[in-house]
Design a protein that fits this description.
The chain is an alpha+beta fold. It is built from three helices and eleven strands; from the N terminus they run E-E-E-H-E-H-E-E-E-E-H-E-E-E. It has helices at 51-58, 78-86, 138-145; strands at 2-5, 32-33, 42-48, 66-73, 89-90, 93-94, 99-103, 124-131, 150-158, 161-162, 171-172. Strands 1, 2, 3, 4, 7, 8, 9, 10 and 11 form a nine-stranded mixed sheet that branches. A two-stranded antiparallel sheet has the order 5-6. The longest helix has 9 residues, at 78-86.
Amino acid sequence: MLLNKPYGVMSQFSGDPIEQTLKAYVPFKDVYPAGRLDKDSEGLLLLTNDGSLQDKIAHPKHKLVKTYWVQVEGEPTEQQLQQLMQGVELNDGMTRPAEAFRMPEPTNLWPRNPPIRERKSIPDSWICVRISEGRNRQVRRMTAAVGLPTLRLIRAAIGPWQLQTLQPGEWREVPPVW
């Protein structure tokens, strides 16, 4: 199933009682997240009860491409985008090359609660980043490393699956593609 994970929700079904979890949004007890999406990130999360499918989605050896819409502080330069495309040195090593390009603000974007901080003297902009690995907070760390701090991060696609029109907290069942 595809879920648009809202901001502030943990990508798990159990946890600290004060934390919001998937349990509030998913009516099934026999599915598990295939991969992670940080609490402060939003967007597409795949859930399945098929262990081999979960492995194909989440394991780095399969290099499944994940697409992110990233609102960053500042206006990206060609040099910053090129750095992302060549790979970025992080504290846990060099990342694989990514696709990265400027994009307009996504259409039909839902408001985030709480809203993104706005600075009148510093513009923000949107970039699309596609990666084929999934280190902890990788996209945030990559954009920060090139001087573009992430303000908002939305996963729009995982391989062939797309967020499309799902609103935060909404889900839909889809047949497996493998």
